[in-house]
């Protein structure tokens, strides 16, 4: 019998809302079998906080998850987690919480790299907790890039944030704005267009329509407001088109997202927008509602998605966190796995 792909779901920061939204999303009709990679006491607490009736099954091996009865939260506790995680104060930055989040990500990544799971779905982590734990990585994307490399060359990865109205891929991510502008070059932009094109093909689009946003107001206005469009972005678009990854632009960044948006009564002109910097690209998507967004890491040798929000320390522990974005992340991961299986 053919089984559906197994999704490995890391619990996130145990002091944030991650365990709560994981408990909600993975115990109630997920799109595919899920194994939660996390701490037993933390996940028991999350189930209680949310007022769920879901039983919890502690697995000896993560690949037992598909055999767990429907409505049961399948949990695998990886070795090496800090002790007494459920005793940490909720809603605060804790180094042990950062260590636990890191360990769960490492363990989930090992599952996909060894073929025991088909995809990773990661619950939110807190960047200050990761730093307090000694992590050299500012977030999931950079950590997964390093883990996927296995000591070799780092794969080129990019962040895509998507909902049912917009898909945006970023050329630069977690760096200061000044540094982001310094990092822009033709090769980096071409690579982003290539990864976007490949993502579109995996999503079943025969000819993905990719718009490239400019960096400066009015896309530089012919050089009046900056020359990055002429020096870097336009040559990168031309190179990508010549290589077989068609894209158009550069377009004014204050209007291209409206043109690309797929809304009721308005079919978007584009399937993806490539944006030069983090906030340039993510503000339009998040404005439409963080509860609907999904973060997808492009360029990894496996599927990775996550919800489009953080740890929400202000509401953690109250059982009120909305799991909609995590449910969407599970669905996108499942769909990407199915598309990959179809070739």
From the structure above, extract its key features:
single chain, 343 residues, alpha/beta, Isopropylmalate Dehydrogenase, 2 domains, 12-stranded mixed sheet, 11 helices, 12 strands, 15% strand, globular
Folded structure, characterized:
The protein has a twelve-stranded mixed sheet, with helices on both faces. The longest helix has 19 residues, at 95-113. Helices cover 37% and strands 15% of the residues. α1 crosses α2 (40-49). By secondary structure, the chain is an alpha/beta fold. The model has no long low-confidence stretch (mean pLDDT 93). The chain is globular. It folds into two domains: 1-155 and 300-343, Isopropylmalate Dehydrogenase (3-Layer(aba) Sandwich); 164-288, 3-Layer(aba) Sandwich (Isopropylmalate Dehydrogenase).
Topology:
Elements: E1 7-10, H1 18-27, E2 34-37, H2 40-49, E3 56-58, E4 73-76, H3 95-113, E5 119-122, H4 127-132, H5 140-149, E6 158-162, E7 167-170, H6 177-183, H7 186-202, E8 210-213, H8 228-242, E9 248-251, H9 256-260, E10 272-275, H10 278-287, E11 294-298, E12 303-307, H11 324-342
Parallel strand pairs: 1-2, 1-5, 2-4, 3-4, 5-12, 7-10, 8-9, 8-10
Antiparallel strand pairs: 6-7, 6-11, 11-12
Helix pairs in contact: 1-2, 1-11, 3-5, 7-8
Largest sheet: 12 strands, mixed
Estimate the helix proportion, in percent.
25-40%
User: In the CATH hierarchy, what is the superfamily of the largest domain?
Assistant: Isopropylmalate Dehydrogenase
Q: Any idea how many domains? A: 2
| CATH class designation of the largest domain | Alpha Beta
Spans with pLDDT under 50 lasting ≥5 residues? none
Tell me, rounded to a whole number, the average pLDDT.
Answer: 93
Q: For the largest sheet, list the strands in their spatial order.
A: 3-4-2-1-5-12-11-6-7-10-8-9
User: How many strands?
Assistant: 12
In DSSP terms, counting alpha (H) and pi (I) runs of 4 or more, how many helices? 11
Global structural class: alpha/beta
Quaternary state reads: single chain
Strand content: 5-15%
CATH topology of the largest domain: Isopropylmalate Dehydrogenase
Silhouette: globular
- First-last Cα distance: 20 Å
